[in-house]
Amino acid sequence: MHIDELTETFELLTDWEDRYRLLIDLGRKLPPLPDSEKTEENRVQGCTSMVWLVEEVEPTDPPRLHFRCDSDSFIVKGLLSIILMVYSGRTPREIIATDIDEIFSRLGLEQNLSPNRRNGFFATVERIKALAAAHA
Question: What sign for the dihedral angle of Cα 84, 39, 64, 135?
Fold first, then answer.
């Protein structure tokens, strides 16, 4: 699913409970990381739930960054799916230039997520942007 399709689907779902279920479904579809990649080095700090982020660099010019994520919470995995839709497969410059706040707002997440989940979401985005900056 592409982020524009997800946005359209979210707009059709007027009830937050339906949106919440969609996030959980997205989380269930996110492939788990193997235990060998669930390391402290891959762990995203600032998340209440356990979140791991793995970066893979496609050696093109410019390089493209691909990310894989996992969490111990399906709702968080759903949020990670959104992050992957936005950032994975892009160049470092594209990643740095992408405004996640606008997407977050379009999806209506700011009104319906707990502060802890919101902080974890943005901690993951900041980690991705830091990884991108290292390749820019």
Answer: positive
Please indicate whether residue 69 is annotated as part of the active site.
no
Q: From the candidates 6, 26, 47, 79, which is the catalytic residue?
A: 47
CATH fold of the domain at 3-135: Sufe protein. Chain: A (3.90.1010)
What is the per-residue pLDDT across 52-64, written as a single tens digit (0 to 9) for each? Answer: 999 999 999 999 9
What is the residue whose two structure tokens read 């997520």? Answer: 113
How many C-beta neighbours within 10 Å does residue 40 have? 7
Looking at the DSSP bridge assignments, the partners of residue 67 are 55
60-79 average pLDDT score: 95
Supply the pTM of this predicted model.
0.92
End-to-end CA distance of the chain: 27
